[in-house]
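User: Last request for today: this protein with GLP, please.
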Amino acid sequence: MAEIIITNSEDEAGEIYAKCVADLIERKPDAVLGLATGSSPLAAYRQLAKEVKARNLDVSRVRGFALDEYAGLDPAHPQSYRSTITRTVVEPLGLDPDKVRVPNGNLETIKDAGREYDAAIEAAGGVDVQILGIGTDGHIGFNEPGSSLQSGTRIKTLAEQTRIDNARFFDGDIDQVPTHCITQGIGTIMKARQLVLLAFGEGKAEAIKETCEGGISAFCPASALQLHPHATIIVDEAAASKL
Ligand code: GLP
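Assistant: Here's the final one, the structure of the complex with GLP:
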């Protein structure tokens, strides 16, 4: 069963993540961080940048693997997850960009990209701490409802609701939101040694209820966290309101 922490603010939640990751980097300077996009982890990255500075940590050997990427979107596009991870994590933390990988959404090579990505994570010794957001339909990474709980990194079709939710990043125009993605599988995510899922606001309350109290099922991909030996779910009062 995952540990659930209810906090007063995104910053307070971010501090918990930041302390945990800063302690990890102190112990293991070449730590492997699992990174996520979306708005939920932003305060956590800001707090981690503060903590790194306050403790004067050397992050030059820290490695990172992002969860997912849109398929067929130029990595230089401002809304590609490559650009987003660079802007929100690599630059503020001062990580070595060559040590941070994002799945390759190039359509010509995408067929083999998933297997190669999982092999690269394994070769790095696995992810130490994976940060996660959650979609309103309970997805993690881009593993939409119905995804196999054993899945590896692979190409997926985006659910209509996810494209609607993410249209805000594409001038509110759903037609600009890619239809496919490459995402770490639920099986890939579950191999990380520690999982920290962050969720804030009323809109996530139903997904959090299903994740924590529903049956473990592919209908709510995040419910797999119930099976992880070291998973922490950090929410605010609003996201916890249906628990
Ligand atoms: C996208 C990402 C997910 C993220 C979700 C929720 O679909 N692929 O990793 O968890 O959005 O985003 P937000 O945190 O902005 O609500």
